[in-house]
Structure formats: structure tokens, C-alpha cells
Structure prediction request, 371 residues.
Amino acid sequence: MQVVRADLDELELPLVHPFETSFGIERQRQILIVRLHTKSGEVGYGECVASRDPGYSSETVATARWAIGELVLPWLLRQTKVDLTSFTRAFVPVRGHAMAKAAIEMALWDLVGRERRRSLSQLLGGNRPRVEVGVSVGIQPSVAALVEAVGTYVTAGYRRVKLKVKPGWDSAPVGAVRRAYPNLRLWVDANQAYSPRDAGRVRSWAGKFEVEQVEQPFSERSIDAHARLQRGSAFRVCLDESIVDDASLEDAMHRRALRSVNIKSGRVGGLAPAIRLGRSAARGDLKVWVGGMLETGIGRAANLALASTAPFDWPGDLSASDRYYADDVITRPFRLGPGSTLEVPTGPGLGIEVDARTYRRYRMRRTVRRR
Ligand code: OSB
Ligand code: MG
Prediction:
């Protein structure tokens, strides 16, 4: 295919509820969306998961806009013929900027699917029409507010809840949720907020309240601290921020630092690397699941396609559209179905239709580049 035009749009979407983690609070998402137009008239969409601030990772909307606008698009618009292989080969030497690269990669997958009349799930070798999902619940103003928030999700049909935790917001809220919901599948995620010195306390409340999985309690660089926590714990230690490529996964598995892995295509530089990592992890007996970055329906469609492939058999952080946004930018928002599941799109490419009016209403900036 030949890309003749690329739009880099910046949307600002208000979240239904503020989302608070150990690294900060987000009230609205600033989202870069890339739209690649081919010579044959197809348009492919890619969502960049970078946030405005470097809290989850060092990438931001500004660094992604720079990497996409100054590195990737000039290259892309110069090619007479481009595909996923040539794109990957050209950008292997570019260090970092995983979220920027992943956004372009997503748009290319969307285009390949549209051209071949195949869904992204089919292209990736997916074999599940619906995938099991859970919900990630941010830090709340009070324990009572948290129990109430979890209650609304349980009532809506979510069977697995992940609580954001940090020092000072752990034992009491986790205990209260466990007492209110004795059978709920309960995970926690600290986004690196603990010191390895806190390991004993984390092990104690996670054990006592039957937490199934503890995600990224320590720094992304502290692989051994995670291994020490995993040793002798009934819960699974899950890594998110630490796992950015094949080498970091191999190393963490070798050191037995994890028994589960959260895979986000943005963090690892695309869907192709995400599948590759998912396969290696499953071969090493890890539980594998798709993480989320509060995506709009565009990125969510890609996440669902990823989750439909074999290695990803644990429930992802892939909630229904209305858990995030009152007006998603797609015409048919994702709804929670029976058994805490979402349907995997079947249309060509991402399989979604962008709602042009909503999209334009939330678009704050746009740049158009032509060949
Ligand atoms: O650590 O998994 C995380 C959201 C933003 C940044 C990091 C994380 C998250 C989530 C939300 O937990 C997952 C979702 O999109 O539902
Ligand atoms: Mg996480």
C-alpha cells in the first residue's frame, strides 16, 4: 500500500470518573489519534496510549507527537510501498517511543485488514468471539466510596476487579472490598509505589484478603525484589511496566520474578511484539492478559483483537465503553455481555466505525501531512 496522507489528531475526552493511581489523577484523557490515508482511498486508525504527563512511563503526548510527526510520518510518506514488515524493519533501530510506534503499527494493521477484508482478530490468529474482561478501579476519596464503586461494577456484571493501591491505601480498602464481596476475583495494581522494604506488609494483606494477583508493586527496575516477593507467596506477582521487550521478559522469567504478565501493545511497541511476548510468556507458564490505558473505542477494538488470541486467556483490563467515556468516538460502543465478556469486532481491520461528529467535537488539534 501507499500512504498519501496522514492526520495527527489530538482529542480531549472527559472521563466518566476521575482515574486515580499511585502516580496521579486523570480527569480527562488527551489522546493522539493517527489516521493514515492510502492511495486506494482506505483510512486506517491508530490510537496512541501515551498520557499527557510522564506518570505511568516516560512517554507523553508531546514526545509521541514529536516521534510520530518528526520520525515516523516523514518516512511513511516517502515510501512508494509500505507494509508491516518494512515499517518494523525501519523502526527497530529507533530506541524507545514504543507508544508512538505502536499507534502507527495499529493504523497499518487496520489498513491491512480493510484491504484484505479480514478482521484484526483474524489477521492475528484470534479464536475467541468474546473475551472475558475485568475492571480497573482507581483510588477513591474514601473506603466507603470504593466499596460503592466496586458494587456498581459487580452489579453491572464484572466478575474480576483490580484495585489501584499505594502505601496508605491498601490493607483497609482491600479488606473492605473483600468483606463486602467474599467471592469476587480480586487483583491489585500499585504502579511501582512500594519499596522492597514493604514486601512483608504487602504479602500479609494480600494473603489475608485472598488477592489473586499483585501487579507491579516495586520499581520497574527492581526485578529481584519482585522475585523475592513471589517466592513463598500464594498470589501471583504480575509485571506491567517492567516488561517492555523480549529481553526484559526473558530476564524476569529467568529470575522467577512473575507468574503473570500484563501486556499492552503500546508499552511493547505494537501488536506484533505483543503477540510474540504473549506466546513466550505462555510457554513459560505465565498467565497472560491484555492491559488497558483507558483507550477510546479505537484502541479498545485493537485490545479486544489481541485478547482473542490463544495466549491471552486471563481477563483483560478491557471494560465496556461506558466505564470510561459518556460519548465514545465509535458508533457502536462496547457493552458488557454475559459472563463478564466483551464481543470481539468482526468487521474488516479494527472493525469499528468512528462517529465523525463526536470525534470532531472532542478534537482539539489536528495536523495534516501529505506525500
Ligand atoms: O497500570 O494498568 C495500569 C491505566 C492507565 C495507566 C496504567 C494502568 C491503567 C489501568 C487502567 O489500570 C486499565 C483500563 O484501561 O481499564
Ligand atoms: Mg498496571
Remarks:
- Residues 56, 136, 189, 191, 240, 291-294, 317, 319 surround 2-succinylbenzoate (ligand 1) (CB under 6 Å).
- The longest strand covers residues 3-21.
- The chain has 13 helices and 13 strands.
